[in-house]
Design a protein that fits this description.
A four-stranded parallel β-sheet has the order 2-1-3-4, with helices on both faces. A four-stranded parallel β-sheet has the order 6-5-7-8, with helices on both faces. The chain has helices spanning about 20-25, 40-60, 70-85, 105-115, 135-145, 150, 165-180, 200-205, 210-225, 250-260, 275-295, 310-325, and strands at about 5-10, 90-95, 120-125, 155, 190-195, 230-235, 265-270, 295-300. It is of the alpha/beta class. The model has no long low-confidence stretch (mean pLDDT about 95). Strand 7 (about 265-270), helix 11 and strand 8 form a beta-alpha-beta unit. It has a domain at about 165-300: Rossmann fold (3-Layer(aba) Sandwich), CATH 3.40.50.
Length: about 325
């Protein structure tokens, strides 16, 4: 047996020149924008990506000229491979991105060349949504249908890990470390605002478990912290005129300040790597808002990136699948 692990993630433009084609790929996905007629998808994606490219490029320019997501995900893959090796599990770890290089089909060609016969599929989205894990798996299964050799690879899937104890404990430990940095480190005096990537409300109404998973993650993390700090959940990064999950993060920040909150800790709950939503939205956009409305103390929990505890949590997920073979 030759074992492989493939990590799924969104992907991101590595340079400003990549922004428009990345956005085109994103909005071409019917799991991101659902239209009544499929033939409308690509023309609409071209229109949206073209009109949004200039504004989005300005955001990426403020975080260094591109997304660090590919670099960080590659580093996570290397760290995971090393941790699995430390546990006596010989495996090669690959990265397959949904909307930018290395695309999933590129990863699969490498997996084929390396002679992988067993593959564990691990999306880097803790909470399941049709727009993230669902979209990545749908593409992956579609690729398998077109390649007889790939279908022969034995596959095991991790589809959700929103309640996985090592993940919960790692996030709780990160939060504790940030609470300690406030002028008044009493947990009762620090408001925890978990900010998750939003999805259209219609997805939830059609059965997408994303909201329920996210709420359960918040509950478990709060429980791990002793249910001491006041806690809220909000949603960021909505696109388009349809109704998205609420409350929006910017509005929630305003509401919390109006209610007297002075120490606010932002927690990017659905993001495991630093990218545009953390580095621009949380660190620049919402920090500016907090300053403008007079939040005295605003901090943010860092994304996991290659935090040793997080890599060990991923290794636990893989090990559980290996042990069941």
């Amino acid at each position: 047996m030759s074992l492989g692990v493939i990590l799924f993630n969104l992907g991101g433009p590595e340079t400003l020149a990549d922004v428009q084609p990345f956005l085109f790929n994103l909005f071409s996905d019917p799991e991101i924008i659902r239209l009544p007629a499929r033939f409308m998808q690509k023309p609409l994606a071209w229109l949206i990506s073209t009109t949004r490219a200039k504004k989005s490029s300005a955001y990426y320019a403020q975080i260094g000229g591109g997304s660090p997501l590919r670099r960080i995900t590659d580093e996570q893959a290397k760290a995971l491979q090393a941790e699995l090796g430390n546990r006596g599990i010989e495996a090669k770890v690959y990265v397959g991105m949904r909307y930018w290089h290395p695309f999933t089909n590129e990863a699969m060609h490498r997996i084929e060349r390396d002679g992988i016969t067993e593959l564990i599929v691990l999306p880097l989205y803790p909470q399941y949504s049709v727009s993230t894990t669902g979209s990545s798996l749908k593409e992956f299964i579609g690729l398998l249908k077109g390649q007889t050799k790939w279908r022969k690879i034995r596959r095991r899937y991790v589809t959700r890990w929103y309640n996985h104890a090592p993940y919960i404990n790692t996030l709780a430990e990160q939060i504790k470390a940030e609470i300690a940095q406030f002028p008044d480190p009493d947990p009762r005096k620090v408001h925890l605002l978990f900010s998750a990537h939003s999805v259209p409300q219609s997805y939830i109404e059609r059965g997408d478990p994303y909201l329920r998973h996210t709420q359960e993650t918040v509950r478990l993390v709060s429980e791990a912290l002793g249910n001491v700090s006041p806690t809220s959940l909000s949603f960021q990064s909505k696109v388009g005129p349809v109704k998205w999950l609420e409350p929006a993060t910017d509005q929630k920040i305003r509401d919390l300040r109006s209610s007297g909150v002075e120490q606010l800790l932002m927690i990017p709950i659905s993001f495991v790597s630093e990218h545009i939503e953390t580095l621009y939205e949380l660190d620049i956009l919402y920090k500016k808002l907090a300053d403008e409305i007079g939040v005295p103390h605003y901090r943010r929990v860092p994304a996991f990136n290659t935090d040793v505890r997080f890599i060990m949590a991923l290794a636990d997920l893989v090990s559980e699948k290996v042990s069941r073979q």
